[in-house]
């Protein structure tokens, strides 16, 4: 018992050391200098009195919705045009226009931005929501510069639309779309303004790590789980592609010349809302010719600037008013005080470059290692079973002794293989369950805390099985060395030597080595993902 406990402890410490040195730690830097809005009132100031009577309120005008077709390079996409109407039912003249640029979760013009685009149109702004082009957009591959060129066709269409002042057309991007809109403005300096809603600013890989960190904190996961963030987000993702995860929008922000409205919801845990606002203000002034920036934070608003109203989710009641006033009041509203207003943001940590993994930096190797380890654990016993079936069929029992492992070794090897696979499966199931809770903004201590304890207990049991295998192999080899060697070792001594062999027959040897190698691969992988952390 003492030897088993001591060996198990040594294995656990060794696996903890492997996990510690195999990849980067996760030590996010707290935000020490917080933004303080000048006022909690988000109302846009700076409207020129001479045009004040031309600035409508949300809901003031009837809205005409018209499906349109937008020609791109070689293909066409649909779109939905919304135009404000006067009391006679005629399209209002000389109105500003806004082209909407989709985030990662939106695609159809009939389903995306319906509240926002309708609110702006009802206040006197012509809006165009194009369908997202999907033939060049996949999870693995996307090109933000090429996407900007596609959306530019919508800008050109809106500039030629009835009732639109072509010199007052701008772009509205949300989330992923805010990596595209600055490219559009840099390549088309005539774009009159940009609205950046829930802008990550940092590259997608950095934003993903920041979001995962916040989601996990909201879910209440154990501290040990956070080490997986840089190891998952920082590695080269399996299968290749994903080059866009390192896209840097800041060089494009530095080329901005048009006014920028920056909007965040203070209940959005996925975005670095303070850091993003600061960075946009800083980057747009690099060229020496500042692009005026206005920042608004909305209390209780989520990623899409929605809040809970009457038991459901709806656009923040002040958002449409503020955006439509800012757009219609330009250029006076572009640099009107206060620059930063609204709810006080509370970003906890900075979104910084993600540390790169060391040995497991290639996702293909990580996935391949898991598949190889599990495959070897299954392969060895499978070959043994097939061999046993063939042997029974040809009835060679007398000629060839049945393969076997030393007494007590078979059960320990079975426990090691089964435990390695079970712990890996449990870890994957646990991470998927935590991801579901995190994305749904839910907490469940039984799943989050209890599940992690369960995964680690399985890992400890597997380490004990490994200790039993080592102890049994050591005992058998010691007993074998005690048997007399040489030609004189015959009769009972030779029989005793055969009885204390670790494995007899090639199927037994193959099974033993397959399970041992496969289990070591899985145990090292489990250590890498933090199952065996001991505070090292």
Automatic annotation (TrEMBL):
Is this entry keyworded Oxidoreductase?
A: no
Q: Does the UniProt entry include the keyword Disulfide bond?
A: no
Describe the location of the Peptidase S9 prolyl oligopeptidase catalytic domain by residue ranges: 147-305
Task: Give TM regions.
Answer: 365-387, 408-433, 453-470, 510-531
* Pfam families tied to this protein: Peptidase_S9
Top-rank lineage group of the source organism: Bacteria
Alphabetized UniProt keyword annotations: Membrane, Transmembrane, Transmembrane helix
Q: What is the official name of this protein in its record?
A: Prolyl oligopeptidase family serine peptidase
Q: Which organism is it from?
A: Isoptericola luteus
């Amino acid at each position: 018992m003492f030897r088993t406990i001591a060996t198990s402890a040594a294995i656990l410490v060794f696996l903890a050391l492997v996990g510690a040195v195999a990849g980067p730690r996760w030590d996010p830097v707290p935000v020490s200098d917080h933004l303080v809005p000048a006022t909690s009132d988000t109302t846009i100031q700076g409207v020129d009195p001479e045009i004040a009577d031309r600035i409508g309120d949300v809901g003031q005008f009837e809205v005409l919705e018209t499906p349109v077709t937008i020609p791109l390079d070689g293909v066409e996409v649909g779109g939905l045009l919304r135009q404000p109407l006067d009391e006679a039912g005629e399209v209002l003249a000389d109105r500003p226009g806004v082209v909407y640029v989709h985030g990662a979760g939106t695609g159809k013009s009939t389903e995306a931005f319906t509240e926002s685009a309708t609110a702006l149109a009802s206040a006197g702004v012509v809006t165009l929501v194009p369908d997202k082009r999907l033939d060049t957009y996949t999870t693995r591959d996307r090109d933000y510069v090429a996407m900007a060129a596609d959306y530019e066709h919508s800008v050109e269409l809106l500039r030629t639309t009835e009732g639109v002042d072509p010199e007052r057309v701008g772009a509205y991007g949300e989330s992923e779309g805010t990596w595209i809109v600055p490219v559009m403005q840099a390549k088309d300096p005539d774009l009159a303004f940009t609205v950046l809603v829930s802008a990550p600013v940092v590259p997608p890989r950095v934003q993903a790590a920041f979001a995962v960190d916040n989601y996990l904190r909201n879910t209440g996961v154990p501290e040990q789980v956070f080490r997986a963030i840089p190891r998952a987000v920082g590695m080269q993702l399996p299968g290749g592609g994903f080059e866009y995860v390192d896209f840097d929008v800041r060089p494009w922000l530095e080329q901005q010349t048009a006014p920028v409205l920056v909007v965040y919801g203070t209940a959005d845990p996925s975005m670095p809302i303070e850091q993003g606002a600061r960075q946009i203000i800083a980057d747009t002034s690099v060229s020496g010719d500042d692009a005026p920036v206005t920042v608004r934070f909305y209390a209780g608003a989520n990623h899409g600037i929605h809040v809970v109203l009457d038991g459901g989710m709806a656009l923040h009641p002040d958002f449409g008013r503020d955006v439509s006033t800012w757009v219609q009041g330009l250029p006076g509203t572009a640099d009107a005080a206060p620059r930063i207003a609204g709810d006080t943001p509370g970003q906890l940590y900075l979104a910084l470059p993600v540390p790169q993994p060391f040995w497991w930096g290639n996702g293909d190797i990580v996935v391949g290692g898991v598949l190889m380890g599990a495959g070897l654990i299954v392969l060895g016993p499978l070959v043994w079973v097939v061999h046993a079936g063939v042997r029974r069929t040809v009835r060679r029992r007398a000629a060839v002794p049945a393969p076997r492992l030393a007494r007590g070794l078979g059960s320990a090897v079975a426990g090691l293989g089964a435990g390695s696979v079970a712990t890996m499966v449990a870890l994957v199931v646990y991470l998927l369950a935590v991801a579901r809770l995190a994305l749904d903004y839910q907490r469940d201590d039984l799943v989050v805390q209890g599940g992690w304890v369960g995964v680690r207990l399985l890992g400890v049991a597997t380490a004990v099985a490994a200790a039993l295998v080592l102890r049994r192999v050591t005992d058998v080899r010691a007993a074998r060395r005690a048997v007399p060697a040489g030609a004189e070792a015959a009769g009972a001594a030779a029989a005793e030597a055969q009885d204390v062999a670790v494995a007899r027959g090639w199927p037994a040897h193959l099974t033993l080595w397959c399970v041992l190698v496969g289990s070591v691969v899985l145990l090292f992988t489990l250590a890498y993902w933090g199952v065996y952390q001991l505070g090292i």
